[in-house]
Amino acid sequence: MEKRYFYYGWEHNLPVKNHLYKGIENLHDLYDVLTNCWSVETCTSRLRHHWSKDNVTCGQCAITAFIVQDLFGGDIYEIPLASGGVHCYNLVDGVAVDLASEQFGDKAKDLVYDNKNLQDRPFRMLEPEKEARYVALLKNVKAYTERM
After folding, report:
1. CB 21 within 8 A of CB 142
2. 104-139 burial: b if 16+ Cβ within 10 Å, else e
3. Judging by beta carbons within 10 Å of its beta carbon (0-12, 13-18, 19+), is residue 21 exposed, middle or buried?
4. Which residues of the chain have pLDDT under 50?
5. Residue 104 in contact with residue 88, Cβ under 8 Å?
6. 79: which residues sit within 8 A by CB, 6+ positions away?
7. Which terminus of the chain faces fewer neighbouring Cβ atoms within 10 Å, N or C?
8. Residue 86: predicted pLDDT
9. What's the confidence (pLDDT) of residue 41?
10. Where in the chain are the domains?
11. Model's pTM, two decimal places?
12. Are 50 and 40 in contact (CB under 8 A)?
């Protein structure tokens, strides 16, 4: 039986444009790798108390969107959240992709992917914690794919 995916945009299993890691050829491959690489250490500090093995996407949106952009190109957008803060996703070749959408559970259906709030990646990478988490996730991905 074929594996099922539930992240936003899963139906468009886009191919990578930049072959940076062995074994990652499309979005599903990247998602599978990330599920083994996301950790409490790569989770944003304000959400670490919510992170668990059952909710590995919690607090991973920005750094995940950076990796998606590294591999697939496109732009990163932000969704303002009713609870405050923002949630990041990617727009690749006209397709909205959100590998971290599952952290919202049933409330994921309330996210509006309207491509209005373009994120300034260089500005966001000036945040030391975000840059450190991105580097840690890259390290995890590299180590994991080298073992594949």
Report:
1. yes
2. beeebeebebeeeeebeeeebeeeeebeebbeebbe
3. buried
4. none
5. no
6. 86, 87, 88, 89, 111, 112, 113, 114, 117
7. N
8. 94
9. 98
10. 19-146
11. 0.96
12. no
Place of tokens 């709030």: 117
- Between CA 48 and CA 40 the distance in angstroms is 6
* Predicted local distance difference test score (pLDDT) of residue 31: 98
Residue written as tokens 């957008």?
77
Instruction: Check residue 98 and report its DSSP letter.
Output: B
In terms of Cβ atoms closer than 10 Å to its own Cβ (0-12, 13-18, 19+), residue 143 is exposed
CA 148, 58, 94 angle in degrees (round to 5)? 75
pLDDT of residue 83: 83
Q: Which two tokens stand for residue 55?
A: 């909710």
Residues in the chain: 148
Instruction: List C-alpha distances in Å: 32 to 36, 112, 128.
Output: 7, 25, 27
**Structure tokens belonging to residue 85:** 């803060």
State the pLDDT at residue 65: 98
